Each structure stands twice: as C-alpha cells, then as structure tokens.
Amino acid sequence: MRVEKHSAPKPRPPSAGGASPGHVSFADVSPGTAATVLGAKKASAIRPDPVMELQHVMGMSGEHARALAWCPGTAEAVFVSNNLVVAQDTVTGVQRFFMGHTAPVVAIAFSGDGQLMATAQEGKTALVRLWNMATGQCAAILCGHTSGLAAIDVSQDGRAVVAVGMDAYKRQTLVVWDVSRVLQGDKATPIVKHTTDFNVRCVKFSPFEEDRLWTCGVDSIRCYRLKNGQLRGISVQLGEHRHTKRVPAGPYADDLMRNTFTDLAFEAGHGLMELHEKHIFVASVSGAVFQLNYGRRCLECVYQLHNAAINSLVVSEGFCVTASDDKFLRVWPVDFTDFFLEAEHEAPITSVGVSGDGLQLAVGTENGSVRRSDARNTRIDSTPLECLT
To answer: Are residues 226 and 354 in the same domain?
Structure first.
C-alpha cells in the first residue's frame, strides 16, 4: 500500500468546548490538502463524518480525590476520565460528555443550585473551565495559575470561584474570581490573588458567611476573610494534634510527622442559628476527623474513624460519609458515636458524592471503578454505574 505524505494543517486555537455526543470528526483539513481514502483521489473530508461517536465511558481517573461529585438537584453523578468530564444519569444510565480540557482534570465543583460546574486541569496549561449544566456549554475559562492546580470550589450562590495552584514563581496561590454573570455571557473578573505558605490541599467557601472561605493542608487549617480586595487568614490552633504517627515501617517507625489534612465539610441543617453552634469537619491522613467550632475557630474534638487516610468527607443533614485508603466507606451520625452503614471496596476509595436527598451515593476508587450505592440499606450494596446502561 502506498502512503502519500502531505503537509499537516495549520494548528487552530482551542475552542471553548462543550458537552457533546462524542463525535470524532476529520473534516478540518487545510485548503488544498489532499487525502487518499480507499482509492479516492482528492477529498476535503473523510466520509462519513463523523466517523465515530463516543457512546459510553466506563471508569474514572481514580487517583484524584475530587474527581467525582453529585450535581445538586439532579440525578447526575459527574466524574473524570483523564481530560474528559462525564455526567451520567444514575436512573437511565445516559451520559453527557464535556469536552475541551487538554490535560487531566483533577477537580470538580458545583454551585449550590447545580447550574454552574467548575472543572480544573493540571499540567503546564493549568486552567479552570466553567460550564453551564443546562446547555452543556463552556461558559468561561479562568487562567490564574501556571501549574499545580490542587483544588477548586464554587460558592453556594454561584457568584464566585476559588482555585489553588502555583504561579510563575512556583508559589502556591489562591485566586478568587467574580463569576456572577458568566452564565449570561459576561466575562469572569479576578477579585484577589493571594500567595500562601501553608501547602493547601483543599479549599471551600463557607455556606454560613458569604465573605469567608476555609482551607486545609499540611499541618494547617485556616479561615480567610475576603474584604476590600484582600484575603486575611487565621489558623486554627491544633496543639498536640499538629503531628501524627506514620504507619510503623523502616528505621523511623512511629516518628511524629506533620499532619496532613485532606478534605473539609460544613455541618448541614436548618436548626443551627448562631455561628458558635455550627461545626466544620476536617479529614486527615491519620484516619481521624477533626471537629471545629465554626464561630469560635477552635478545635473541639478528634474522632479516629479509619485505620488509613480519609480521602473524602461529605456531610449531609443528619449524617456524614467518610471514604478511606483502608477501602472502607462508612456512614456516621454527626456525633460519630458509631457508624451505621459500611461497605468494603476492592481498592482504596478516593472520592464520594451524595445526592441532594441524601439517599444515593456515588463512589470512586483508586483503580478507576465508579459505583452507585443506596444509603437506605442497612448494608451498602454497590452497583457499577456502567451497569445502568
């Protein structure tokens, strides 16, 4: 077979992207370029066009702790498969695909009403894409970092987005954007860029105060206030709990090491009126959950819930879900007296999402499996999402 060589088409700038049925097209050929297809002499495109259609994605990028979430107010569980974002209806099994990222996606976040989704990609082209969940179209692209995007969040009212990553000088930086008008076609506006030395792993807007956000990371839990275009933070005093013991191994077994906090969640419920009655829960690599008094910004107690790192922590009204490297998913009352639901998976659990009614769970594991569970069962039985098609 003779292979004809032709000059490559000129590169085109990346488009905004959007949800797609998964078409793969080869119709973009530069003028004058010939293509030999099964004996045809010159053609402007391969026929039929599109030549392939993506129908279903099985499995996720399980190495990222924030690569799965439940879209609020819907039956869709959203997860990441490399640079593709997949939203799957957990009732019908139908999938939507959000295309446009050019590097692996590491985090997903939603506004409180589920209308706005933010997705963050790592690598040298670190950026955040904002999506209109109703149309599936990319509404904006946020570029505030050069690499190392670690975490993102969208405020409950959908008016702001925060992302944590590295700047051009390899300093970790928090960037907050005003995104209140992006769904109406306006641009996102940077509000503040703040350099931090606290090695942040997770960032969340407070649902209790609109000008507050919280971070956790290596040996630190901090509360920030956004005022007059600046972020001012205060650390929670952890005392003896600043350090933890590693798994006994090697010549330095049982040495005290700096604690790393992996995820945080806010207490849910409508009966809490005063700030000092509210709580924030922070997960750690030691398998413990730290309970903080939100109003007083102080540590109240520590609950040892797992034998390995807790990767994901979700609090819903009346219960809390923890997912751990020990392969166990557990559902607890908010006083953590004892878990009342438990499921052991085949691999470490890296992420979990809870439906708006609190009755369904979406669970992602390190080996890439995605499962749906019914939280009403006395023992959680999981169904792979791909079995819903």
So the answer is: yes
293 falls within a domain: yes
Do residues 35 and 173 both lie within one domain? Answer: no
**What pTM, to 2 d.p., does this model score?**
0.83
Asked if residue 316 and residue 244 are part of one domain, the reply reads yes
Average pLDDT over the chain, rounded to whole? Answer: 84
39 lies in which domain range?
20-54
239 and 137, same domain (yes or no): yes
Is pLDDT larger for residue 270 or for residue 330? 330
Structure tokens at 38: 């099964």
Number of domains comprising the chain: 2
> Do 273 and 372 lie in a common domain?
yes
pLDDT tens digits for range 26-75: 334 344 444 333 444 455 566 677 778 898 999 899 999 999 999 999 99
* Model confidence band, residue 6 (pLDDT cutoffs 50, 70, 90): very low
